[in-house]
Design goal:
Layout (H helix, E strand, L loop, with lengths): L1 H22 L27 H16 L1 H13 L2 H5 L1 H15 L17 H12 L6 H4 L6 H4 L3 H18 L4 H11 L3 H20 L8 H6 L28 H5 L2 H8 L4 H9 L6 H12 L7 H10 L3 H14 L5 H8 L3 H15 L6 H8 L6 H22 L4 H4 L23
Helix pairs in contact: 1-17, 2-3, 2-5, 3-5, 5-6, 6-9, 9-10, 9-11, 10-11, 16-18, 17-18, 18-19, 18-20, 19-20, 20-22, 21-22
Length: 437
Amino acid sequence: MSMFRSILRRLELALPLAIVALFGACRGRAQNTASRQPAEPAGIDWSQVTSRDLDIASVFLVARDRGVRPALDSLAVLTRHDPQLDLLGHQIAHALGRYAVAQRNYDAGVFAECRPAFLSGCYHGVLEGWMAGHPDANAATLRGLCSSPAMLRLPPYAFRECAHGLGHGLAGMHGHDVFAALPDCDAALAGGLARRECYDGVFMENVVFSEDHDVMNVGDAMAEHHQHVQGDRKLVRDDDPAFPCDSVPNATLAPSCWAYQPVVFYHAYHGDMTRILRACDAAPAGSAGACYRGIGKQTLGRLTQQPDSVARLCARSPQAAECIRGMVEFYVDLEWKADSAFAFCAGAPGVVKEACYRAVGERVAWIDPSSQALQSTCAAAGAYAATCLAAAQGEHAGEVVARAAASAPPAARTGAAAIAPSPAPPPAAPPHHPHSP
C-alpha cells in the first residue's frame, strides 16, 4: 500500500500537465463577438506577440496556401521543438479542420484530406466546422455523412473518428445540452459502434466545454454559431461530480458518459487520485469499467513521462485490464500507430501484460485489417503475438459488421452530405511520435 500511495503522490504532482493537454484539446470556442464589430477595428500590439503565436499563425498560412495536410506536417515539425506547443497540438488540429472546411465553402470532402495526427483533431474539427456552417442541419442531412462509399475507401479508423467528431458537433449545435444531442446520434448513425463513438463525442464535448478553458478561436462560422455561447448549458455540477452520468438511466449511453467523468473528478477532488478511483468504483456495474478506461486514456494516459508508475497504478486498481486498455488506446490513437503502445506494453507489469497486448490487438484492427498487416504488426508483441493477433482478428470481424450496419443510401437520395475522395495530397512528413515513452 505504501508503494501505491507513493505512486499516487507522484501522479498528483504530474497530473496538472495532463489536464492541460486534455482541456486544450477538442474544442474551439467562439470568438468574442465584440471583436467582430467593424466600428472599432481591433489593433494588434506586435511587440507583445510571442514567438509561439507566430509559429501557430504560420501553420494556418500553410493551410491557406497549400492545404490542411501540409499544415499538419508543418505543425508536427514545430511541436518537435516546442513541448508546450505539443500540448496544444490536438486543439490546433481541431482549429485547422474547422478552418479548412470553412475555406472550402463547407465541403465535407475536406475530411478525407486530414490525417490522424494529434489524436485526429483535424477530423473532428472538420465535422465541427461543417455543422457550424450548416446551422439548419438535422438528422436527415447528417445521415450518410460518415458512411458514404468514399468513407469506406478510407482507413477504418476514419469511420470511428467521423462518428466521434459528429458527436462533438451535435453537442455544439444543441447548445451543449447533451440530452438533446444524444438522440441525434441515433437518428444520424446506424449501428451500435458508430452511435457509441458519437455518444463519446457528445460527452467529451460536455466535459471540455464545461471546464471553460480558453481555446483557439478560428473561423467566422464558428463564432457566429456560438455567439450565444454564454447561454449554453454546462452539464457539470460542483455539488455533484458524478453529474450528468448519474442522471443517464440508459445503460447504452451511460458508459460513454462515465468514460470522460474522471476529468471532472480530478477537478472536483483536487487531484486526489484515491478519491478519483473510488468515484469510478461507485459507478454502475455496467459503467465502472468505462470509468477506469477513462482514467487510463483521458487522465493517466497523458502522463507519458512516467508510464511505469501509471502502469503500476492501473495494475493495482480493481479494473486493471480496463485501465490499461485506456492507456493503450491513448498511445495508438495519437496517430493511429502501434509503436508506442507496444513499447508501453513491453514494460507493463506482468499481471496486466496480456491485457495490454490484447488491447493493442483490438486497436490495430482499425488501422489496416488485412491478414498480412495484422500478423506483421502483432509480431512486435513477441511472446504475446498470438494474443494480439486473436484480439485483432476478433475486432476486425466486428468492425466489418459495424461499418456494414452504418452504411446508408447514397447521399444523392438522402440529401446527406458525402465525404468524397480528395485529390492526392502532398507526401506526408515522417511519422511524428512526440509522446513515445
